[in-house]
Amino acid sequence: MKYKVIKKSKISKARLGYIETKHGIIETPCLVPVATQAVIKTLNSEEVEATKSQILISNTFHLHLKPGGEIIKSAGGLHKFMNWKKPLMTDSGGFQVFSLGFGKDFGTGKILKKKLDINIKQGQQPKLLKITPDGVYFRSFIDGQKIFLGPKESIKIQENLGADIIFSFDECTSPISDHEYTKNSLSRTNKWAKLCLNFKKSDQALFGIVQGGKYKDLRIESAKFTAKLPFNGFGIGGEFGSDKNKMMEMLSWVIKELPDEKPRHLLGIGYLEDIPKIIKRGVDTFDCIVPTHYARRGIVFTSSGELNMQKLFFLKDKKPLDGKCSCFVCQNYRRNYISHLFRAKEITALKLLTFHNLYFFNSFVDSIRRKIKESKF
To answer: Of 91, 105, 170, 284, which residue is the catalytic one?
Structure first.
């Protein structure tokens, strides 16, 4: 993998660049749509490419459960398995330590939406996981089988999957973890980062992950530690405090400590309103489920705001989803038809909305790249 910065903004930390992989070049900044189980739900790989998507990220933990890394390896790797000819990322499974652990226990996401008078303290364990110095014991939600995932196992699975860019195994902490818990968790993540570098045998690009939660001292410590290791790039992960402002502040702490010559990926963030802000702070790539997840709930993103296609009055609306959009959905279908399909629970509605939302998000990031090039961002 090669990374090159083409232009740096003079009015923000934004930068224009490209990541070169054996499966093609990624122009940055770039949205990375989430293909959890080697698919963007409702779309085939050719359709995803037509949304202007440059790279996808798949989920190591879920693909390990089904169909299994060895099966995908025997199929020629993830690219051939899913017929995706462009670059791919795979996460490490570290996010599932949070989402299936304390996140599930307390109903929290990466950003705390409401104040909880609870602190996760050192020594506390999630109900369904066991976190140890060497890795994490899970229970399969498919058959209840006990599964161990540590640095060695995560790297091995990701090597079997064969993505262009892989991530080191880490613990994504909860936004209600106290300082002591987060400090000890970071110590584990740092240890695992070194082990991942030692265990990797492939020529895949390996990104280290910066953790440390909402705590400034831990975030800076993590960024400095990870920056000194021979990773090909860096992921910024974990929880981001109680609000978006805290997340933006945290990005500034972290990116200041990371080397300019390597790419930075923000894990699991990318609401439309977040995208300009994170790019202005120096993020190169970012993955997010918003365009696809919202589409399956009937929410469509347009140049005039969000529309909910479940609403009855759209049955009489003969306009395209977005008159300014050039995607095939907006060129060929109308709101009344799509609303009917959604209300009738026809899966074609999900397909049309998913395609449009991805195209819209990718076009939005396209426009930001143009603005950086023109020194307007």
So the answer is: 91
Per-residue model confidence as pLDDT tens digits over 201-214? 999 999 999 999 99
Cα separation, 53 vs 49, in Å, equals: 5
177 three-class SS: strand
366 an active-site residue? no
CB 97: neighbour CB atoms within 10 A? 28
Instruction: Please state whether 241 falls in left (phi above 0), alpha (psi between -120 and 50) or beta.
Output: left
- Reading the block at residue 6, the tokens are 């083409």
Active-site pick, 105, 164, 170, 287: 287
Domains of the chain plus CATH, in order, are 28-288 (3.20.20.105), 302-371 (no CATH)
Instruction: Identify whether 91 is a catalytic site residue.
Output: yes
Calpha distance 295→302 (Å, rounded): 12
Both tokens of residue 127?
């109900």
pTM strictly above 0.90: yes
The pLDDT of residue 152 is above 80: yes
Element (H, E) at 82: helix 78-82
Residue entry with tokens 């229970």: 139
Convert the pLDDT of each residue in 185-200 to its tens digit: 999 999 999 999 999 9
> Are 250 and 269 spatial neighbours (Cβ–Cβ below 8 Å)?
no
Looking at residue 110, what is its pLDDT?
Answer: 64
